């Protein structure tokens, strides 16, 4: 029987592969073009940032694509330069998403039961925290949501 960590890792692996496939299908000249509010490049970096924050618990102050930039907590998290900017090449942006996604999948696969317990930072939750397992589950749906946003943007 598949354990919780393998289940989560497998679901993240699958969803991230579907998201990357959608992004890979976008022509280079359209990758940085805003469609329905954001470019495919922004969506890729947004998911990479949220993978770092939600799954990996990385609090390094170089977040620029959280989507909450008007909030004080998000502003405090972007005092350093972004690891990859939205105007970078499609290859560099997809490499960033691939690297962070692989780290997140590896973390989930190797997480202990204790790693999945307790509370974690979640700015949209009352009090700014939610149970870690719930946060990881919500983020998985968040990836699927942005995959859909990219698809819809290409139809606009």
What's the architecture in CATH terms?
Answer: Up-down Bundle
Parts with pLDDT < 50 across at least 5 consecutive residues: none
N-to-C SSE string, H for helix and E for strand: HHHHHEEH
* Number of strand segments: 2
Alpha-beta content class: mainly alpha
Q: How would you sum up the major sheet?
A: 2 strands, antiparallel
Strand order of the largest sheet: 1-2
Individual helix count: 6
CATH class term: Mainly Alpha
**Any idea how many domains?**
1
Shape: globular
Proportion of strand residues: under 5%
The proportion of residues forming helix, as a percent range, comes to 55-70%
If you compute it from the alpha carbons, what radius of gyration comes out, rounded to the nearest whole angstrom?
15 Å
CATH superfamily: dinb family like domain
CATH overall fold name: Four Helix Bundle (Hemerythrin (Met), subunit A)
Mean pLDDT: 94
InterPro entries: DinB-like (IPR024775), DinB/YfiT-like (IPR034660)
Domain DinB-like: 14-150
Protein name: DinB family protein
Organism: Deinococcus radiopugnans ATCC 19172
